Amino acid sequence: MTATWPHLSGRLDGNRHILPVRIYFEDTDFSGVVYHGSYVRFMERGRTDFLRLLGVGHEALARGDHGGDEGEGLAFTVRRMTIDFLKPARIDDLVEVETTLKELGGARVVVDQTVRRGAEVLATAVVTVALINAAGQPRRLPDWIRAKLPPPS
Amino acid sequence: MTATWPHLSGRLDGNRHILPVRIYFEDTDFSGVVYHGSYVRFMERGRTDFLRLLGVGHEALARGDHGGDEGEGLAFTVRRMTIDFLKPARIDDLVEVETTLKELGGARVVVDQTVRRGAEVLATAVVTVALINAAGQPRRLPDWIRAKLPPPS
Amino acid sequence: MTATWPHLSGRLDGNRHILPVRIYFEDTDFSGVVYHGSYVRFMERGRTDFLRLLGVGHEALARGDHGGDEGEGLAFTVRRMTIDFLKPARIDDLVEVETTLKELGGARVVVDQTVRRGAEVLATAVVTVALINAAGQPRRLPDWIRAKLPPPS
Amino acid sequence: MTATWPHLSGRLDGNRHILPVRIYFEDTDFSGVVYHGSYVRFMERGRTDFLRLLGVGHEALARGDHGGDEGEGLAFTVRRMTIDFLKPARIDDLVEVETTLKELGGARVVVDQTVRRGAEVLATAVVTVALINAAGQPRRLPDWIRAKLPPPS
Question: Which CA distances in Å does A44 have to A65, A81, A125, D145, D152?
């Protein structure tokens, strides 16, 4: 089906990943614009599809499939998130979530994320994620994942 | 903490369970009223707290704790749901979710659910749930759960 | 941006509309599969994008833009929904929401919706929607919208 | 109904507000614990009920009811949010959201928020909110709201 729906996971553009997101009823609130918590969901979709296009899937990671080798089940988890809400998105809007790698540590990754509507910046975030095992213990980013990531910018 | 927050899980009233639910920003959409999908969440909260007050917890079930005995991990899953949306709830409203047991089969339970604001009926539903194991296979409702349920009305 | 992201709103295929939906963290629950309430959101996205590709947008309707003429603000609202949950979707899955027009009355529209993963049917629904004004009063489906809808199948 | 459900909106304790929140299916994700975006919703509930117990309701504000006087419709909006996710909450958990006023400016309010499970701190946040009118323009915090707020701590 992926062939049928090109760009459903957005696209890589150099160091950046861009994901289109449509605003539906579910994303808005009674104030008439998008609920602030919805941007948190959009940004998670952006990070997930960035990883997907690099060849890292949540389901395979959780199963312990480490790029072919077997290992313990792993999952990415968010440790810290700072979001600035600048302008509201509205129903029917098409926005884009841009994700860039900012820092790559032993056990954590920091990304910059921006939500835009055309040229307008609606929200920006700095998000720190870490890799944990099923027991919640932090795990060093494996070399096979590290090898797939673009250099931090 | 439960002592500190009486009625947080609602209350049993004969065959019925009543759960109070406050309407927050997250539950509304840009049309100014509650998003239709939010009632599905409220009804799940009602069913969960009905079971909780009867002594059946999701976490214990998933761990395989069967009222003290060990067994395979189980979870309730929704098989079928018919909802009628009659009147909209609004931000700041306090609504009540009423749940009553309608049918009790070998492997499935049917409940009636009603969302009210005071005397006004906002939404009604008939929901069929079943018990499954971790592999998704249907499981007969164990006697220890059956013994805790009120008679269907 | 629409040119950049073809098929973001799915596609019309005769009387049917097909929308691709990716399963993200936000759509799942602790049982390991997709939360039942998430299908309600996916189905709303399908109905919305069906209307969008036919030329009917929620934002324009709410503003009272009736295909060019001015009028009172209108919104679609769900009156009744029956959903059968057959098989669970999982994280990273790509599913498709198919929407077909089933009945077209004076003030209400009934659609059939099916969520598939490849050839597997995961969930089906029959959904009745109606058009209301800002005061919540039912409104007859205007001729300009009626003219855009495919014949019921 | 408020009399029937004491403490549904939590309670004021000196400068602090405490709101109990139950973890339901809807709040969790396939990793087995609470989805990080759910804490954002819990914290909004805490801020809303803090205001509610002080006598400031979203619905009345949006209608332009300024503590009895009429005025333009207003709504609180989140400008900035920094969250640290320390330990995960799980299904069936009862957590408490503590909100304290940190800074009170002319047009913005900064609050500290902490989510706890018993004595364990699960998440902390610093949140800046502002008041806007229906056109999205910032508005000075009216004196009648200011008079109801406790002194920043």
Answer: 22, 11, 11, 35, 33
Distance CA A24, CA A133 (A): 34
Residue C118: CB atoms within 10 Å:
9
C63 Cα to chain D: minimum distance (Å): 15
- Residue D49 backbone dihedrals phi, psi, to 5 degrees: -75, -25
H-run or E-run covering A40: helix A36-54
Q: Do the Cβ atoms of A148 and A68 come closer than 8 Å? A: no
* D1: in domain: no
Q: What percent of chain B has pLDDT over 70?
A: 98
Q: Which of A25, A29, A90 sits opposite B25 (nearest CB)?
A: A29
* Minimum-distance CB partner of B25 among A35, A90, A91: A35
| CA of B36 vs chain A CAs: smallest distance (Å) | 9
Name which of C72, C147, C74, C141 is nearest C110 in CA terms: C141
DSSP state of B29: -
Which residue carries 């800074």 as its tokens? D103
Domain of B111, in residue numbers: 12-146
Is position A153 within any domain? no
Residue C58 lies in a domain: yes
* CB distance A126 to A152 below 8 Å: no
Predicted complex ipTM: 0.94
Crossing angle of the two packed helices D36-54 and A36-54, in degrees rounded to 10: 170
CATH number of the domain at D76, please: 3.10.129.10
d(CA A85, CA A95): 14
pLDDT single digits (tens) B18-36: 999 999 999 999 999 999 9
D29 given a catalytic annotation: yes
Is C1 contained in some domain?
Answer: no
Q: What is the pLDDT of residues B79-107, one digit of tens each?
A: 999 999 999 999 999 999 999 999 999 88
Residues of B forming the active site? 29
